[in-house]
Design brief:
Radius of gyration: 15 Å
Mean pLDDT: 90
Number of helices: 4
Largest sheet: none
Strand content: under 5%
Shape: globular
Length: about 110
């Protein structure tokens, strides 16, 4: 994992309170695991956004504008997803593994 990113992730503690959204530290790490798995080809999701909305959504995602507070992801819904790992440390370890797989995937599949 990138040293700066790894250092930031390793600062997270399971007893920290959320400062912005509703996710716990472990929920956020597990959320990142899902995002990386989409990028490394291990998780396939169907796009459920109407085609006419895609240009607007892409423009927002490609901007540096922060995600609005209270944003509800239509795929996830208003509640946190159930946790998949027994601890924050286990989730951090899995995130590191998925990031390594991400880099390996693109080294092996440059096109």
């Amino acid at each position: 994992m990138n040293n700066k990113f790894s250092a930031k992730i390793n600062l997270l503690k399971s007893n920290q309170n959320s400062l912005w959204g509703k996710m716990s530290a472990q929920h956020m790490v597990e959320h990142l695991i899902l995002a990386v798995k989409m990028g490394n080809g291990k998780l396939k999701l169907e796009c459920n956004n109407p085609p006419d909305k895609l240009p607007t959504l892409k423009k927002f995602l490609m901007s540096s504008r922060p995600m609005p507070k209270g944003f509800v992801n239509t795929v996830i819904g208003p509640d946190n997803l159930p946790l998949n790992y027994s601890s924050l440390d286990e989730a951090k370890s899995k995130l590191e593994e998925e990031i390594e797989d991400y880099h390996r995937f693109f080294e092996e599949n440059p096109d």
